[in-house]
Specification:
The chain is an all-alpha fold and 111 residues long. The protein is built from four helices and no strands. α1 crosses α2 and α1 crosses α4. The longest helix has 64 residues. The radius of gyration is 29 Å and the shape is rod-shaped. The chain starts with a helix and ends with a helix.
Length: 111
């Protein structure tokens, strides 16, 4: 009689302790790897944005040196040929890139 009451209770306590320990370990693993992944993604995005900004400036300079009628379209073509992987990873839309190209072209033109 005593075994039928104590043994299940002890097993329930052991199961609860093991479950809590396992949950704590899994939570800590998820927290550490999740934070690390977010940091790495943020750093990568920052590098991609810098690379895109440099490419837009270089494209604007090339467009100013070339005698083309639509300099913004030239910059867009320059970006698509020069940094296609960056454009894909950032998900940059053509209209946004054209606006940025026009802004940089006006700045480069004034220099």
């Amino acid at each position: 009689m005593l075994d039928t009451i104590i043994l299940p209770t002890i097993l329930q306590i052991i199961g609860a302790v093991v479950g809590l320990l396992l949950s704590a370990v899994l939570y800590e693993i998820r927290r550490r790897t999740g934070v690390q992944i977010r940091i790495e993604e943020g750093v990568e995005l920052s590098h991609l944005r810098e690379r895109l900004a440099e490419a837009i400036i270089n494209g604007a300079k090339a467009a100013m040196a070339a005698s083309v009628p639509d300099k913004a379209a030239f910059v867009l073509d320059y970006l698509k040929k020069g940094v296609p992987d960056t454009l894909e990873k950032l998900g940059a839309a053509d209209d946004v890139l054209l606006q940025r190209a026009k802004a940089v072209l006006s700045t480069v033109h004034r220099l």
